[in-house]
Amino acid sequence: MKVAVSTDGNEVSQHFGRCEGYNFYEVKDGEVKNRIYEVNPGHQPGVIPKWLNERGAKVIIAGGAGPKAQGYFNDFGMKCVLGVSGKISEVIEKYASGELEGGESSCDH
Fold first, then answer.
1. Whole-angstrom distance, CA of residue 28 vs CA of residue 11
2. Coil, helix or strand for 36?
3. Residues whose CB falls within 8 Å of the CB of residue 70, separated by 6 or more in sequence, listed in order
4. Tens digits of per-residue pLDDT, 19-53?
C-alpha cells in the first residue's frame, strides 16, 4: 500500500496542503520500502488530494487537514491519519507496525 507523508524537513508537516513536499512509501507486511520524495504542487482546493490519488497513495499522514481536504480524501477512498507529529522515519515505522495513533487534526479551519 502506498502511504504519503506530508513533509517539512525531516518532520511530519502540521498542515498537509502547506507542506514542503511529500514522502511516498510502499508499506507491505509491516515493512517500509521505496521512499520517493516529491515537492508540493501547490495549495489550491482539491488539487493535492487528486495529485496524491494519481500517484497511488491510499493513506495520507499529516498533522492536520481541513474539512474540505478530508472530504476530497474520502471521495478518493483515501484514509487520513491526522494529529501526527514527529520525525518522519519514526512515524512511518510506527505506521507499518500498526502502532501509529492519529488524533485531532491540527488545522483549525
1. 22
2. strand
3. 80, 82, 105
4. 999 999 999 999 999 999 999 998 887 899 999 99
Kindly report whether the global pTM for this prediction surpasses the value 0.90. yes
The cell numbers describing 89, all together, are: 522515519
Across the chain, where does the E strand assignment appear? Answer: 2-8, 11-12, 21-28, 31-39, 57-61, 79-81
C-alpha cell at 101: 495513533
Strands 31-39 and 21-28: antiparallel
Query: What is the CB neighbour count within 10 angstroms for residue 91?
Result: 20
Strands 2-8 and 57-61: parallel
